[in-house]
Amino acid sequence: MATVHNWQLGREMTYRHEGGSYDRQFAAVFNINRCIACQTCTMSCKSTWTHSPGQELMWWNNVETKPFGGYPAHWDSRLLSMLEDANPGGQTWTAERGDDDAPYGEFGGRTVFEASSPTERALGYLPQEADWKSPNRYEDHATGHSKTGASLPEHDGWFFYLARICNHCSYPACLAGCPRNAIYKRPEDGIVLVDQERCRGYQKCVESCPYKKAMYRPTTRTTEKCIACYPRVEGSDPLTDGQPMETRCMAACVGKIRLQGLVNVDDSGVWSSDPSHPLYYLVHTERVALPLYPQFGTQPNIYYIPPRWVPRKYLYQMFGPGVDDAIAAYTRPSRRLLAVLQLFRATQEMVFSFDVQEGPKLNEIMVDGEPLELFDDTVVGFDRDGREIVRVRVEDPLIERPGKINSI
């Protein structure tokens, strides 16, 4: 076992391999506040990658309703219970938040790697076939209802939608668990893939992945998983003329909840400082987007803007102690953040940098009893070569079509 630095935990931790060095890291931010669970992302992925025999129960992208839903069933609550059993009362965080090396404080508990037995490489379990059968179980099921109506910051009865893909972690548990070394991270973009020639279907990756995004295919007796639509990321699609492109689930998103990109990383695999990159800006500068279950220790690269109306205690468990600051930043966004939020799903090409051009004042509204000024700024996104690819205003333009609109 090696010792690596996990900035999401704010400390060193043990891992099977040394930290890798990558040219860039595939990453994304999902804004849960916008998700409507239309499952368009789910079906776009399904129709592209998992429509063949043996893949009937495979959903590389899924949207589950929290707190009761999960695919496979109860994947997170079951592992959280296992971690608590391995370290009773010790799965806690410090209250102090620091710089980019420890933005959420320090996790004092055990990761899935540190809580494993001497014969395991990561604490985990193998789901039963029945656990994979109902990806939409408990959809739209709330915790209850209120007779007096709902109001922020927390609702009495609540649920929210959690869209999930493989996190393409910096320290993948599936990679650590594979006895065949069949799983690897690509050096050019950090995408986690399975070498089908080396895989023998032992399912140790399925057992080890805390997010259960490695899946066994019985017809081929091998593991398959989200491949981050790497041909599109490589720029092989003619639509973007050689530029890196969003994945299928991203491009199909109706609610515009997703922003995807490639971030620069240093020799240890940590994101290099780049406040002009929209993902770096959201995760590190504004800290409005948080990792999913950072206490697992895999350092996932898919981040979430947490929902405003959910009890904080539940969100602390899911996203760590950065929840209060993230929700505060989203509820009262800075002028620059409000502009950057308009980039979500604004173009199929990946945005590598942005600029904000200031515009006139639109309005002044009251948020949490305090005034908030809104401006019609314009955010401009640039591709890998620095060329402008998108330009979006904070205020949606009003377009009038002259003449008859339809034939009815």
Written description of the protein model:
The protein has 408 residues and is an alpha+beta fold. The protein is 17% helix and 21% strand. It contains 10 helices and 17 strands. It has helices at 40-49, 75-86, 173-177, 204-208, 230-233, 248-251, 278-285, 312-319, 323-331, 335-340; strands at residues 2-6, 11-15, 24-31, 62-66, 160-164, 183-185, 192-194, 214-217, 222-225, 258-264, 290-291, 302-305, 353-357, 361-367, 370-375, 378-382, 388-393. A 4-stranded mixed β-sheet has the order 10-3-12-11. A 3-stranded antiparallel β-sheet has the order 13-16-17. It starts with a strand and ends in a 15-residue tail after the last strand.
CATH architecture: 2-Layer Sandwich
Largest sheet: 4 strands, mixed
Q: What is the molecular shape?
A: globular
Strand content: 15-25%
Radius of gyration: 21 Å
Q: How many extended strands?
A: 17
CATH class: Alpha Beta
Number of helices: 10
Query: How far is the N terminus from the C terminus?
Result: 70 Å
By secondary-structure content and strand pairing, the structural class works out as: alpha+beta
Could you name the ranges where pLDDT drops below 50 across 5 or more consecutive residues? Answer: none
Main β-sheet, spatial strand arrangement: 10-3-12-11
Helix residue percentage: 10-25%
Query: Mean pLDDT, as a whole number?
Result: 94
Order of helices and strands: EEEHEHEHEEHEEHHEHEEHHHEEEEE
